Amino acid sequence: AQSVTQPDIHITVSEGASLELRCNYSYGATPYLFWYVQSPGQGLQLLLKYFSGDTLVQGIKGFEAEFKRSQSSFNLRKPSVHWSDAAEYFCAVSPGDKLSFGAGTTVTVRA
Amino acid sequence: EAGVAQSPRYKIIEKRQSVAFWCNPISGHATLYWYQQILGQGPKLLIQFQNNGVVDDSQLPKDRFSAERLKGVDSTLKIQPAKLEDSAVYLCASSLGGGSSNEQFFGPGTRLTVL
C-alpha cells in the first residue's frame, strides 16, 4: 500500500526567509503527487500537482516542488515566506483515483 | 463560482448520540468525497460517490457511519451512535469526475467534538 511521510511536524521560519517542506512517499511506481495547504478554519487548497514531465512544478502563491524519483521525494519550497503562509501543509499521493495524505507540517511564520 | 458548502461548521454531542453533516458540492461536480481528519493527522477518505452511486466505502465504519447522496447532488454523512474517537473534522470535497487528474475542491469542514 502507498504511504506518505512528512518528517517535520512543525517548522518555524522568519518572514522573508526561504521554506522547504519535506515529503517522501512509498509506492511501487510513480504516483500522482500533490501539495495542499490548510489555513485555520478553511478547507484544503491545492498548491500544485505532479503527474509527469518536468520534475520542477510551479504552483500558486509562489510555491514550487521538485520530484526526485531516486529519493522518492516531492519537497515543497518557497524562496521568501510571507506571514500569510502560516498554515498546515499536506503532501498527498494517488496511484489511481484515491488521495492518501501525509500527517501534515505546521508552518509558523515569525516577524 | 461558489465553493463546496458544509454545515454545520461545529457540533458538540455526547457519546452514543447521533449526528448528521450536510454537504453541497460545486455545481456540476459528479464526484463527491467525505474525509475524516483527526487532530494531528491528514485527511482519510471515508466514502466516494460518483453521481448518486458509491464508488468506494472501504474505509467507512459501516456499523455506525452511513452516507447518502440523493439525486447525485447534496450528500449527508451520519454517525449513529457516536464514540469519543469520532471527534474529528469531517471534510467534504467534490470534483468534476473521478481520477486524480480532476482536482478535488474541499469545503471548510465540520468540526465534531464527542464528549
What does this entry show, briefly?
The complex is a heterodimer of chains A (111) and B (115). Helix content of chain A is 0%, strand content 52%. Chain A has strands spanning 3-5, 10-14, 19-21, 24-26, 32-38, 44-50, 56-58, 64-68, 73-78, 87-94, 100-101, 105-110.
Explain what this protein looks like in three dimensions.
- The complex is a heterodimer of chains A (111) and B (115).
- Chain A has 111 residues and is mainly beta.
- Chain A has strands spanning 3-5, 10-14, 19-21, 24-26, 32-38, 44-50, 56-58, 64-68, 73-78, 87-94, 100-101, 105-110.
- In chain A, the strands form three sheets. In chain A, strands 2, 5, 6, 10, 11 and 12 form a six-stranded mixed β-sheet that branches. Chain A has a four-stranded antiparallel β-sheet with strand order 3-9-8-7, with no helix packed on it. Chain A has a two-stranded antiparallel ribbon with strand order 1-4.
- Chain A starts with a strand and ends with a strand.
- In chain B, strand 4 (31-37) and strand 5 (44-50) form a beta hairpin.
- Chain B has 115 residues and is an all-beta fold.
- Chain B has strands spanning 5-7, 10-13, 19-24, 31-37, 44-50, 53-56, 65-68, 75-79, 88-95, 105-106, 110-114.
